[in-house]
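Hello,

Our lab assistant flagged a job as stuck in the queue for most of the afternoon. It eventually completed. Since we weren't sure the result was trustworthy after the delay, we are filing this so someone can double-check. Below is the sequence as submitted and the structure that was eventually returned. Let us know if re-running is recommended.
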Amino acid sequence: MRLNKYISHNTRYSRREADRLIEAGEVTLNKKVLQEFGYEVDPEDQIYIKGKLLKVKASKELTLIVYNKPKGVLVTKRDDRGRTTIYHKLAGKFRHFVPVGRLDYASEGLLLLTDNVEVATALMESSLERTYNLKIDAPISSEMIEAMKEGLVLEDARAGAHEKSKIYSMEFAPFSAFEIRAEGKNFSKLRVTITEGKNRELRRFFAHFDAKILDLKRVSFGGIELNNLPTNKTRFFSRKEYDEVHQFMKRKKSNEQAEIKNQANHAKQVREKVDKPKGNYRKKG
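-- returned structure --
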């Protein structure tokens, strides 16, 4: 997990506050100052903030909710400009929940939240499908269709990004599916399904083709559907949805254990090859 997300998920700090702490040299790893915003935290890392060890939140219980986020609401704990966040909208009993990824200020729709950081991280970093309804201010071009089918690599992906974003380049995987639902001279409506959750990914993608997203609504994440849940309302997961999450986590852990075993076997084979005594060869003649 990226350093700022790790701090936000396990403390009272928002991601922006975490960025400021990192920039100020207040975050250390084994007494060494960490100033890499993209540093990926290892489970064994001991992270300190202002000299105090960050204690990872442990939770054996699991509660998951679906929230229909309205437009004009931030997915963060606090905003330095005093704008409304999801925690102003959510009931008090959900104030300690962490979101699974984000929807930006102008976007709406399905947002998953949970009281289990491990599950939130696993879902957020997964390749589970995310489905969105979009409206853009341009007709669909053949170049857009090709990029949705084949993927796209941009060295400069700042168009469509937040003005303070530190992410410049971006690689877009091929869309899992897309459907053009309506098209006029100056607009198009689409339903798209992707398997990533990168920073403003869809806004950056279409901005590359000089198309601005006018409306963006997430309607599904990993098979969890928004359906008819009213705006600004929440619902708990169904038993079937909980079972699917437990199965997902079980598969994830099984895959991780298999990968560790494979790496250990590979390392053993390399050692045996290096340690294997070389044969003695006699030169003929």
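-- support follow-up --
The delay was a queue issue, not a problem with the job. The result is valid. The first helix runs from residue 3 to 10. Residues 129-221 form a domain with the Pseudouridine synthase fold (CATH 3.30.2350.10).
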